[in-house]
Amino acid sequence: MKIKFAVFTITIALIINTAQADSSKAAVCTACHGATGNSINPIWPSLAGQGAEYTVQQLKAFKSKTRNNAVMWPFANSLSDKDMWTIAVYYSKQKSNIMPSESEQNPIAERLYRGGDLERGIPACMACHGPAGAGNSPAKYPALRGQNSPYTKLQLKDYRTGNRKHPMMEMIAQKLTDEDIEILSTYVSALY
Length: 192
Prior knowledge:
The chain is globular and about 45 Å long. The chain contains 10 helices and no strands. The termini are far apart. It is mostly helical. Helix 3 crosses helix 5 (81-92) and helix 8 (149-161) runs antiparallel to helix 10 (178-189). The protein has 2 domains: 2-92, Cytochrome Bc1 Complex, Chain D, domain 2 (Orthogonal Bundle), CATH 1.10.760.10; 106-189, Cytochrome Bc1 Complex, Chain D, domain 2 (Orthogonal Bundle), CATH 1.10.760.10.
């Protein structure tokens, strides 16, 4: 088991190190996700600063249709594993645009993000996504900071309805109210 894990770790390290973080492979992505990975359309995700492992995981999910998206499938389907890593590494090195939020509900969102809600069985978001919303790349937990608030809101609602699959996120999102989703989406976009 240890040998297999070591080989897997070395293989991933080699892929990441050999993937050139250039923009040529990411050129087709720029129309929706921006040249620097900061999407100007609020319902499309920003990729800047996103962990490479998470981005590759999502591209593979689009390619296999386990994450069903008619727009992303043709693009992901044409990518090799090396292409996916090249694109993911490129965007992971880009700086995300973080816009400050002055919502009056930020203290409520902050308590939910940092401490969860024990009574409702909601864990702290930062347990997986980190105190600053930077995610946990090796664990494939996405960065939330710098993400467009409408996109995050849509994803949480998709988890709640089961349109997007992830057992932990589905369970959490089902316990969130529309107001929780609204304030959390705004709050996490401005974390830094």
